[in-house]
Amino acid sequence: MKLIEKTTNKFTKAEEEEDDGSEVFQSIEVAKVDQSNVSPPPPSADDFATPLVEVSAAGDELNLIPLLNFAMVDNGIFRSGFPDVSNFSFLKTLGLRSIISLCPEAYPENNMQFLKSNGIKLFQFGIKGYKCPPGLENEVWLHLWNSKCQKEGSYTNTNSKTSEPFVNIPDHKIREALKVLLDEKNHPLLIHCNRGKHRTGCLVGCMRKLQKWCLTSIFDEYQRFAAAKARVSDQRFMELFDVSSFKQIPMSFSCSSS
C-alpha cells in the first residue's frame, strides 16, 4: 500500500520570491509485514533477574531463593552457606533427609522447626571458624601460625611428624561427618557451614580424595568457592587427610570407580 504524506518545503528568502505558491507532495512506500512469521526478540538479562517462583497447593506464589554458595556436589549431596528462613521454600524442593552442619553454634529455633516439620535429621559437627588476619597473605599467615604451634607444642597432625596449623579443622570431626556423608540412607543431604566456603570445602575435598580425584582438581573446586579467601592451611589439611581407613564409597556416587 502507499501512504501519501503532505509536506511543506522551507525556502530561503530568495527562493520564496520565485515560489509560485504551489504545494509539494511526497510519496512514501510502506511495506506491510506479516507479524505471525516474526520471531520474538531474544530474552534480556533482566528477564532472569527475578527469583524462581513456585505455586503452592493453595495457589499462592512462593519465591524460591537458593542458599548462599549453593551447588550440587554429587548424586543426592548438596553444599551451601547457612540456611536462612528465606531459603526454606527452596530447601523443600530438594527433598532432604539430612543436613550436616559444621558450625558450633546452637541451631536457630526457626531452622529446627523447619527440620522437624519436614522430617529432616540434623547432624552437627561443630568446627570453629577462623579468619586470616587482614593484610597477610596465606603463605605468610601459614608460616606464622606454624611457628606459633611449634613453640607452644599444642598440636601435632597424626599424618605428619611436623607441627601443622590445623587446630581449627579437627581431623576426627571431619571423619565422623564423612561417615554420615557416605551413608546413602541419609541422602538427599545438604552440607553447610557459615558461608559454604572453608569448612564445607574441606569436607567436600576429603570426599573427593575417596573418589580418587587428583589434588589439582580438589584444590580447583575448593578455590572456586573460597576465591580470594582460599587458605593454604585448608589445602594442606585435605592433602594430608588419610582416607585409607574408609571403605569403598557407594557406587551411586559419580567417578567412584578406580
Automatic annotation (TrEMBL):
<dbReference type="Pfam" id="PF03162">
    <property type="entry name" value="Y_phosphatase2"/>
</dbReference>
<dbReference type="InterPro" id="IPR020428">
    <property type="entry name" value="PFA-DSPs"/>
</dbReference>
<dbReference type="InterPro" id="IPR020422">
    <property type="entry name" value="TYR_PHOSPHATASE_DUAL_dom"/>
</dbReference>
<dbReference type="GO" id="GO:0016791">
    <property type="term" value="F:phosphatase activity"/>
</dbReference>
<dbReference type="GO" id="GO:0052845">
    <property type="term" value="F:inositol-5-diphosphate-1,2,3,4,6-pentakisphosphate diphosphatase activity"/>
</dbReference>
<comment type="similarity">
    <text>Belongs to the protein-tyrosine phosphatase family. Atypical dual-specificity phosphatase Siw14-like subfamily.</text>
</comment>
<dbReference type="InterPro" id="IPR004861">
    <property type="entry name" value="Siw14-like"/>
</dbReference>
<dbReference type="GO" id="GO:0052847">
    <property type="term" value="F:inositol-1,5-bisdiphosphate-2,3,4,6-tetrakisphosphate 5-diphosphatase activity"/>
</dbReference>
<dbReference type="InterPro" id="IPR029021">
    <property type="entry name" value="Prot-tyrosine_phosphatase-like"/>
</dbReference>
<keyword id="KW-0378">Hydrolase</keyword>
<dbReference type="GO" id="GO:0005737">
    <property type="term" value="C:cytoplasm"/>
</dbReference>
<feature type="compositionally biased region" description="Basic and acidic residues">
    <location>
        <begin position="1"/>
        <end position="14"/>
    </location>
</feature>
<dbReference type="InterPro" id="IPR016130">
    <property type="entry name" value="Tyr_Pase_AS"/>
</dbReference>
<protein>
    <recommendedName>
        <fullName>diphosphoinositol-polyphosphate diphosphatase</fullName>
        <ecNumber>3.6.1.52</ecNumber>
    </recommendedName>
</protein>
<feature type="region of interest" description="Disordered">
    <location>
        <begin position="1"/>
        <end position="22"/>
    </location>
</feature>
<feature type="domain" description="Tyrosine-protein phosphatase">
    <location>
        <begin position="69"/>
        <end position="252"/>
    </location>
</feature>
